[in-house]
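Protein modeling request. Please complete all fields; requests missing the sequence field cannot be processed.
Requester role: graduate student
Desired output: 3D structure, token encoding
Chains: 1
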Amino acid sequence: MLFLSEDGFKRLLNGLVSSRNVIAPVEANGYFDFKTIKHAGEAFLDYSNTRLPPKRFFLPQREIVFKHDPKTGVLHEPALGSEAVLLGVRPCDASALSVLDNILLKPPNPDPLYESRRRSITVISLSCAKPREECFCNVFETGPVRGSGEDITLTRITGGLLVEVRSGRGQILIDGFASLFEEAGAQHLEKYEELSRRLTKEMSSRIEIARERLVRLEETLDEKFFQNEAQKCVECSLCSFACPVCYCFDTEDHLEKNVYVRAKGWDTCASPVFTRMASGLDPRPSKVDRFCHRFCHKLSRIPMAFNAYGCVGCGRCVSLCPAGVDIREVLKRWG
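Delivered output (335 residues):
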């Protein structure tokens, strides 16, 4: 591991902003969100977590897949992703990118638009100092100190930050600012271990489960429990749109100035029309069906298909749900 002093970190941030496109958490109207910053002072790294995940920089809410001019026969494809640094991501959100990689980059047909952005953006995570009450990243081992999808992990300790290089892309960035870093000493590593032990103990006291039981969720499904929970749901889809892992989408074709356009945008399995076919047939016609599918998909089907859970324990769906639906109750019941 490397050590970066507080002064060195300021110089690093200034250097990144002056030479690269930097996306970092900023404060706005009492909330935190990721924005492209022009000055190092705009970054607000002493935050709990952003209201919405940084997923949109890799998987936009709406994107053009292609445009086709029928007169000329010319097919216009979107430009490749531009180089950027995503700074200050929490480990859970970084781990969500790893889950999306397993799904969207899986051969033989990876998503080229996602792949382009993923290769263009260097992800720097920042370990949590005090997880929020609704956080449960310990369940899926996606935090709170380190995730699985970042290029560099930063952990703040007394006097500076510990730096762990996690990928070749991260090493390239570090090499560009090599004079700012030094090898971490024994006292730095000791503080790091103290922080890890404290956070691990704190998180484990909230909720602890046997994850291997979740993949058998559908085998032991308590229909009465899900029926009661589903009655709370107002089908607003906020849980899906605030989730750093959800990847369901819809496509639309339309004519724009005599040019055919195909666009792709976020959708959700929680929507009453998501699985409805042109014939009117719907394999999940009831709210209970859709509600049950969401949890079974995240906790059972995705793990079996992609060897990764469809949840990273960020707690956004818990804190934002207007009806008080809590995925942790499912985890406690089956974990």
